[in-house]
Design a protein that fits this description.
278 residues, alpha/beta, Collagenase (Catalytic Domain), four-stranded mixed sheet, 12 helices, globular
Length: 278
């Protein structure tokens, strides 16, 4: 317990004692579905998820296997008159599961429902992720991740984010990074980590978060979107978007952060991303 307390103090408040023990345990293995992958899904992946084009053949198959589990376990519903098609379902599932590609399962265990609006939406009730206080959004939103097992997405932003793999913005990657972060019940930029990774993760992400805050105040350009300076939960989500969409630039400007994300996700996008995604 003395060691745990020391780690928490070392992290500078980046994690809470109440969730520390849960973060030191890893995630149980996922179970794939027995039925074959629908033949049309490979075409949807090619057309709608450009980030997957650099994956090896076995990784692409694993990604769609994960998408099968996702769609079997999660309820996907259209809102605002949107009729959800198979292409929408597979696109969102595949992008969400890209984060899980080399993680040990399960498949977003705290997620129950994905709601899809045709366009940006204004939530009827919004709460700050850290305090739970009711807040008014500045304008229409492209996505939200709720701690009660719901992700909300705007379909046109899903399409635009997937199409441009170099802009560093991808609403599906962003909101599902929040889901990973929230698996232990605390949205604070600390997903469930393998044993031994906690100390370095807490130090590097704390330092990089403070660096982005300074950059945002000084209006200095950064590989990371300034929205990540909002709080540590948003920092992790923005860092995840950048890791997959601007990997080469992230390596150049934030090598330590890239190394931590590479170790966590078990992926190295800088090796297989096309030059435009740098």
């Amino acid at each position: 317990m003395v060691v745990l307390l020391a780690l928490a103090c070392f992290a500078g408040g980046f994690l809470a004692i109440s969730t520390l023990l849960r973060r030191l345990s890893w995630r149980r293995q996922i179970r794939f579905r027995a039925e074959p992958i629908p033949s049309g899904w490979f075409d949807i992946l090619d057309r709608c998820v450009p980030l997957a084009r650099g994956l090896a053949a076995d990784e692409r198959e694993r990604l769609l296997r994960l998408a099968q589990v996702f769609l079997a376990e999660k309820h996907v519903e259209g809102c605002g008159g949107l009729v959800v098609t198979e292409e929408m379902r597979v696109t969102i599932a595949a992008e969400a599961c890209l984060l899980l590609l080399h993680l040990e399962g399960p498949c977003y265990p705290t997620l129950r429902t994905v709601l899809i609006y045709p366009h940006a939406f204004v939530p009827k009730l919004a709460r700050a992720p850290q305090t739970g206080e009711i807040v008014m959004p500045a304008g229409p939103l492209s996505g939200q991740s709720w701690r009660n097992g719901v992700v909300v997405l705007a379909w046109d932003d899903v399409v635009n984010g997937a199409r441009d793999v170099a802009d560093g913005h991808n609403v599906v990657l962003h909101e599902f990074a929040h889901q990973l972060d929230q698996e232990d019940g605390t949205p604070d930029g600390m997903p469930v980590l393998v044993s031994g990774a906690l100390r370095t993760w807490a130090r590097v992400l704390s330092e990089e978060y403070e660096r982005l805050r300074d950059d945002a105040v000084a209006m200095r350009p950064s590989a990371l979107d300034a929205y990540g300076a909002t709080d540590k939960a948003e920092f992790f989500a923005v860092a995840t978007e950048t890791f997959f969409e601007r990997p080469a630039r992230l390596v150049r400007e934030h090598a330590g952060l890239y190394a931590e994300l590479k170790r966590f996700y078990g992926q190295d996008p800088a090796r297989w991303a096309p030059p435009a995604a740098s």
